[in-house]
Design brief:
By secondary structure, this protein is α+β, with helices and mostly antiparallel strands. The chain has one domain: 2,3-Dihydroxybiphenyl 1,2-Dioxygenase, domain 1 (Roll). Helices cover 25% and strands 42% of the residues. It has five helices and eight strands, in the order H-E-H-E-E-E-H-E-H-E-E-E-H. It has an eight-stranded mixed sheet with strand order 2-3-4-1-5-8-7-6. The longest helix has 11 residues. The termini are far apart.
Length: 136
């Protein structure tokens, strides 16, 4: 830890992280899914297209596939956190000294933002918007 205890560790938060996913970049999502279906018996929870890339959530992984330029902004993200309240997480992140890199903005799956935490890690936070997903 740089400079002693992080504010993120001591700040009381109102938001809830419901689940986290580790991003995995794959050359062909269709070819990758059978292996993940075998390794993760619940299979993909969700498969969707966002702009120029495809994604699938399987167990604790978020598989991403697409052109390098479309994925470039996502390569620095170390984890994706599904949250109950994106506004609350944005307030908590700013109070903890994080820097918002983008968002909040609407995406196929709801609303999201990315932040660089005080220690340097980049995390994407997503609040699902089930009505938006049902429309796609």
């Amino acid at each position: 830890m740089r400079g002693g205890p992080s504010a993120a560790l001591t700040y009381r938060t109102a938001m809830t992280i419901l689940r986290t996913y580790a991003p995995l970049f794959v050359p062909d999502i269709g070819a990758a899914l059978p292996a993940f279906a075998r390794l993760c018996p619940r299979g993909p929870l969700l498969r969707f297209t966002h702009g120029e890339f495809e994604a699938a959530m399987a167990s604790g992984f978020l598989l991403l596939c697409g052109p390098p330029a479309a994925l470039a902004a996502h390569r620095e993200i170390r984890t994706i956190a599904i949250v109950s309240d994106l506004r609350a997480i944005q307030r908590d992140l700013l109070a903890a000294g994080a820097r918002i890199l983008f968002g909040p903005r609407r995406v196929t799956t709801g609303r999201h933002l990315a932040a660089r935490l005080p220690a340097g890690e980049v995390v994407e936070y997503l609040q699902f918007g089930w009505s938006r997903m049902a429309a796609h």
